Amino acid sequence: MNKTIITVVGQDRVGIIAKVCTYLADNRVNILDISQTIVSGYFNMMMIVDTNGAVKEFGAISEELTALGIQIGVIIKAQREDIFDMMHRI
Fold it and tell me: CA within 20 to 30 Å of 12's CA: 19, 20, 60, 70, which one?
């Protein structure tokens, strides 16, 4: 399994989850876990996804998610699980 951590942060607005999930489904990326919260009007979502069946390479998915974020007014970052774990080790 190729796990990727996706984070989405920005001002809350209608359709953020729908657009991100639609992109992932269209590219055969499976959502394994998802958590989202809204605090004082700011949206924060973290997803763990499996890119094993994805139709595109990780780099393309990451770039397209960044572009989608710009389009909908949020910041979207995708990191491979192993890199994410290394960066957030205490």
Answer: 60
